[in-house]
Amino acid sequence: MENYYQREIECASPEQIRAWQDERLVKTVHHVYDNVAYYRNLMDAKGVRPEDIRSRDDLYKLPFLTKDDLRDAYPYGLLAVPRADAVRIQSTSGTTGRRVVAFYTQHDIDLWDECCARAIVAAGGTREDVVQVSYGYGLFTGGPGLNGGSHKVGCLTLPMSSGNTQRQIQFMVDLGATILCCTPSYAAYLGETIHEMGLQDQIQLKAGIFGAEAWSQEMRRDIEKSLGIKAYDIYGLTEISGPGVSFECSEQTGMHINEDHFIAEIIDPKTGEVLPDGEKGELVFTSITKEAFPLLRYRTRDICVLTREKCSCGRTFVKMSKPMGRSDDMLIVKGVNVFPSQIETVLINKGYPANYQIIVDRVNNSDRLEVQVEMTPEMFSDSVSAIATQEAALVEALKAMLGIYAKVKLVAPKSITRSEGKAVRIIDNRKLY
Ligand code: DLL
After folding, report:
1. According to the model, what pLDDT value does residue 1 have?
2. Contact 9/21 with Cβ under 8 angstroms?
3. Residues 258, 160: contact at Cβ < 8 Å?
4. Does residue 235's CB lie within 6 angstroms of at least one atom of ligand 1?
């Protein structure tokens, strides 16, 4: 059997890509208008008829869709096929409020697998490889996405999921894993543990496919050195399918967006105006081949740049830069979405004033979250043990809300700087962007 590689698609001419996008967009717009009342209402409110969308050039006429819409329409409001035709649900990593869920038909899963297969091939994967998938499995898309892609390429797939680090490493050694798929922070942790166990000479890895959170070039170099591999970036989001929306090739100057399935736009996050290629702004995706959950002009909140330079790998699909930040204030800490509002809720529920600061650092390639919380004068105490008890209670409550550990430091009344405009709650020292 030949190695799986969709060269004729990934290296298609710009005219061919445009033709696919035009045709598939028109079809998708009719599909959602006919089958999703939520869309019909949005489009009617904007006075757009499906017939108004004749090509990619008409995309700007469509309304944007945001995470709020997905929450409003939760759970089935944006499902575009009969429930009996959908076979899978995945969900975003947010831990509170209404979760965002995405649906897939079998055909949608096949196409998603294809996108992930392309990423694996671009990282040098063939059917000779043993792929260790150490992204979480379950509602998170990382595990299922890379698992499906690995099968499609014909690799021997190790569905490890995340956690149980010693066992991960034992399997990696025993089974001779050659490609590792996980978050960059977990890859760094695995590398560190492999060295502690003195097993670095027994590792056969050659490449890693890392994404789901921001990571710097410095971190890439550290991981490459520690694991003795080439590390590739992969991007995606649950709403648009999961990992594999875009991926790095050997040139590593941005991630190729699978343009036969997704149309990418960059907009000014404040005005919504579409910006030309090369300008920095918010990334917006329209899925054009999905059956169960097609999203039109979905605002990702990720800030990046699109470039259409010729790539030495031969692929013609547009490249996106690593996301340079988010236009909203969501933090991704250890791969988990953290909103300052969640922290605020905990503090206020526990009787603390809303004067707090969130500090995120990256120590030894692992995220550290600290919340500094101001006490009220009534709470203030000279007793070290009384303060430690209060801090411990907050750590517990934050863990229950966020699902991850945050260090808590109680500080004296009035010691956190007040702002006259919008409060700056977050100090992100990770230098990720
Ligand atoms: O993180 C899907 C994924 C899984 C991508 C595995 C890559 C690998 P969500 O949990 O919905 O989906 O989070 C999506 O994560 O909007 C970005 O802000 C961020 N993100 C994803 N990939 C990258 C990356 C998955 N390579 C959100 N670099 C997105 C920086 C990333 N940020």
Report:
1. 41
2. no
3. no
4. yes
Q: How far is residue 371 from each of residues 344, 368, 401, measured CA to CA in Å?
A: 10, 10, 14
Q: Which domains does the chain have, with CATH numbers?
A: 1-327 (3.40.50.12780), 331-432 (3.30.300.30)
pLDDT at residue 423, as a whole number: 64
Pocket test of ligand 1: the residue of 237, 339, 367, 431 to mutate, having most ligand atoms within 8 Å of its CB, is 237
- The residue with greater pLDDT, 150 or 415, is 150
Q: Return the pLDDT at 419.
A: 55
Ligand 1 lined by 242 (C-beta under 6 Å)? yes
Best mutation site among 118, 186, 235 for ligand 1, i.e. most ligand atoms within 8 A of its Cβ?
A: 235
Please report the DSSP string for 356-400 in residue order. Answer: EEEEEEEETTEEEEEEEEEPPTTT--S-HHHHHHHHHHHHHHHHH
Residue 421 pLDDT class (50, 70, 90 cuts)? very low
Q: What are 262's strand-pairing partners?
A: 287
**pTM for the predicted model, two decimal places:** 0.83
pLDDT for position 365: 87
Query: Between 214 and 302, where is the model more confident?
Result: 302
Q: Kindly report, residue by residue over 160-169, the tens digit of the pLDDT.
A: 998 899 999 9
Q: How deeply is 84 buried, as exposed, middle or buried, from its count of CB atoms within 10 A (0-12, 13-18, 19+)?
A: exposed
Q: State whether the beta carbon of 243 lies less than 6 angstroms from ligand 1.
A: yes
**Residue 385: how many other CB atoms lie within 10 Å:** 8
3-state secondary structure of 12: coil
What secondary structure letter does DSSP report for 83? G
**Token code pair at residue 425:** 């709650």
- Measured CA to CA, the distance from residue 227 to residue 187 in angstroms comes to 8
